[in-house]
Specification:
alpha/beta; Maf protein; 6 strands; 201 residues; six-stranded mixed sheet
Length: 201
């Protein structure tokens, strides 16, 4: 397991919501987290067949182009009643403009079309930290819950307004960001990353 020893890294994402969430998680560590967009880094095509493959692809590309360790996230919504869709295609369901209202409506429409009352779902997040030499460390987190309709709340991003985490009555879209950061799929992955790569010995 390789330790992160620098004070600066690249967040290999052009998704403003993800960037803000990852910056919030990194802030207590005193790490200068620079978004890929600020460095004019291209966003590679996500051609992997798993969350881990896509996260590592993005982090390696950013690390190679910037010469800095880079942290990438690949995440998505897995809906039981849709056989695991949209999964790794979660962002693509939002279309080229990344309009997640369209994506949420598609999930709801396909659930109804399937006549499937199973609204159980979970979010998956993989965080991959890669160095310019190509070495990567990857960590997965999940959070389980159910889908609701119509969407509720204007906090968070992506599918947050339709996802109610297990043990809660509010959606991620309604939840205070500080509370979400303690239970989200990304928070779980981040805690694993933190323990493995950022713990000081």
């Amino acid at each position: 397991m390789r330790r992160f020893s620098s004070d600066k890294l690249v967040i290999a994402s052009h998704n403003k919501g993800k960037v803000a969430e990852i910056q919030d998680l990194l802030r207590p560590l005193g790490v200068d987290a620079v978004p890929a967009a600020e460095l004019d880094l291209d966003e590679p095509e996500e051609i992997g067949s798993t969350f881990i493959a896509n996260a590592e692809l993005k982090a390696r590309a950013a690390a190679g182009a910037s010469g800095l360790a880079s942290l990438a996230d690949d995440s998505g919504l897995v809906v039981d009643g849709l056989g695991g869709a949209p999964g790794i295609y979660s962002a693509r369901w939002a279309g080229p403009q990344r309009d997640f209202r369209i994506a949420m409506e598609r999930v709801e429409r396909e659930l109804k079309a399937n006549g499937n009352a199973n609204r159980r779902a979970h979010f998956v997040a993989v965080l991959s930290l890669c160095w310019p030499d190509g070495h990567c460390e990857s960590f997965e987190g999940k959070v389980f819950g159910t889908l609701t309709w119509p969407p509720r709340g204007n906090r968070g991003f992506g599918y947050d307004p339709v996802f109610v985490p297990q043990g809660h009555d509010t959606t991620f879209g309604e939840m205070d960001p500080a509370e979400k950061h303690t239970i989200s799929h990304r928070a779980v992955a981040f805690q694993r990353l933190l323990a493995a790569c950022f713990a000081r010995t």
